[in-house]
Amino acid sequence: MNNLLKGSLVVGGVAAAGALWRAARPASLRRYEPWERAPYANFPNKVLIVGGGFAGYAAAKRLCGLTKGRDDIGVMVVNRENFMTFWPMATGIISSDMDMKNIAQPLRRNLIRFGASFRWAELECVDLGRRFVVAGGQEIPYDHLVLALGAQPAYFGIPGVEEHSISMSSIADAERIRNRVIQRYEEVTLDPVRASNSKLTFVVIGGGATGVGAASKIWSLVHRTLEPDFPNIDPQRVRIILIDSNKEILRELDPTLRRAARLQFAERRVEVLNEVRAREVTADRVILGDGREIETENVVWTAGGRASVKLEDLGLPYDERKGLTVDACMRVEGHDNVWGIGDCAANVDENGNPVPPNAQAAVQEGEAVAENILASIDGGKRLSPLRYRPVGHLVDVGKGFAVNEVMGVKFSGTLASLVWRGTYLFGLESPQSRTRGAIDWFLDVFSHSTVTEVPDR
Ligand SMILES: Cc1cc2nc3c(=O)[nH]c(=O)nc-3n(C[C@H](O)[C@H](O)[C@H](O)COP(=O)(O)OP(=O)(O)OC[C@H]3O[C@@H](n4cnc5c(N)ncnc54)[C@H](O)[C@@H]3O)c2cc1C
Question: From atom 47 of ligand 1, which residue's Cα is the shortest distance away?
Fold first, then answer.
């Protein structure tokens, strides 16, 4: 049998098995969905979740799980994208470790399978008296409203930051960073002698997990992917600089892990400047608080976040930086049927301690709010305060190195990197993304990815 025939048989067999598996899957995954039945929304307990990120998605999933078989409760998620951004792996887009398709987790399919409804629309306003929101030009009524709008970058009024830097606030931003680096290489390769070094200087402002992730992925893109393809550019000209106003980067981690991360950066010639702030950013430089200037045409901003600016329009109590003012059961102050979760709410745990804005907290808040909403609908049960249980921190430093602290156990290096990868890979909701992500990482061990920029036209 020749190779072509053998290959065709294998491919045909796999395709046939796939078709059989799809056909044999139970069609009854869809449970009763009150929002989808005419007349529209004519049922007693309409739970409307605005924001389909970590918090909103977890709330919908848990509530659907708790109310299987009940047709008196309908759950709908409204989100301005039709996917959920899996933030912890988003910096992987910069180095092409991760395809953006794996980071954008499909919302509609997953939610419909749980039994929730989904509308791809942007929240415009809320009528708290008449209990409806306007999203995508439509009035959507609710009995319980969950606000899970997330956060957005804060620039603290520093001149030029918003205009001249790229923040990490969307998948498109991660792609813009990658494309910027590629474009700079292409520009310099045309005339390496006369090209300014500012084109090859990449400054990341903010030394938290996102800034460390961004700097390490720029390093991977530059030194593992681009360097071999641009033989006329001297790698020694490239500078990657991480600026942080704190005494040390990754201050949420144990000092031993901070040192391990810093050592990794030192070995790779990633410069770390601590205890200094950016005072101004212009098109060709960053001016630091101590007067130093860094010539650069490439700045990434990860140094600050604030609750969604949309809160300003909703007529609900909130703090600009921390978010909606909520009680320990996640109810917005003064409103029994409006709940705030995730990065857009100033949640506290059962002891009154503030809960940090991260993915694990958002998921726990989503699950807990689902239970409280059900308790509230069914009456008779007391609402429970949020019991936040931090699992730990996992930070990828790139090049197969991570620094982790899981339930008090601190470890770093290759094993930590595998734990980081495994944890987040299994955190992806879509099985296709999990498989594709695993294959991408496996292939990356043997060959470094190539990158191209496809113009958006
Ligand atoms: C680059 C990056 C890396 C991170 N890495 C980690 C990490 O490694 N570990 C970790 O624990 N945390 C990490 N985080 C933080 C974590 O992702 C957030 O804490 C978490 O996503 C908060 O969940 P959320 O549901 O509140 O917000 P999000 O997940 O951001 O979801 C908010 C949703 O609301 C939608 N929305 C906003 N406004 C509207 C509107 N007007 N109408 C309709 N929909 C709207 C948005 O589109 C979004 O889908 C990272 C964050 C970033 C930005």
Answer: 80
Q: Which atom of ligand 1 is nearest to the CA of 366?
A: 25
Per-residue pLDDT tens for 124-165?
999 999 999 999 999 999 999 999 999 999 999 999 999 999
Q: Return the domain boundaries, the chain.
A: 28-153+306-378, 161-303+392-446
The dihedral over CA atoms of 355, 123, 309, 330, expressed in degrees to the nearest 10, equals -20
* C-beta of 53 in contact with ligand 1 (< 6 A): yes
**Triad 301, 302, 305: Cα angle to 5°:** 115
- CA dist 353 and 284 (Å) reads 43
Residue 122 Ramachandran class (φ > 0 left, ψ -120 to 50 alpha, else beta) = beta
CATH no., domain 161-303+392-446: 3.50.50.100
Query: Do 161-303+392-446 and 28-153+306-378 fall under one CATH topology?
Result: yes
Q: Which pLDDT score is estimated for 20?
A: 63
Cα-to-centroid distance, 304 and ligand 1 (Å): 14
C-alpha 35/C-alpha 331 separation (Å) is 24
Nearest-atom number in ligand 1 for the CA of 90 is 1
What integer best gives the mean pLDDT of the chain?
Answer: 92
Indicate which residue's Cα is closest to atom 5 of ligand 1. Answer: 88
Helix 209-220 to helix 171-190 angle (10° resolution) is 40
| Mean per-residue pLDDT, 198-206 | 98
Q: Is the CB of 340 under 6 A from ligand 1?
A: no
Which atom of ligand 1 sits closest to the CA of residue 169?
Answer: 53
Please tell me if the CB atom of residue 51 comes closer than 6 angstroms to any atom of ligand 1: yes
* Beta bridge mates, 279: none
Q: Is the pLDDT of residue 31 over 60?
A: no
Q: Is 157 within 8 Å of 303 (Cβ atoms)? A: no
Name the least confident of 2-11, 19-28, 128-137, 147-156.
Answer: 19-28
Q: Is the CB of 209 under 6 A from ligand 1?
A: yes
Q: Are 278 and 288 within 8 A, CB to CB? A: yes
- Structure pTM? 0.92
Tell me which CATH homologous superfamily contains domain 28-153+306-378.
FAD/NAD(P)-binding domain (3.50.50.60)
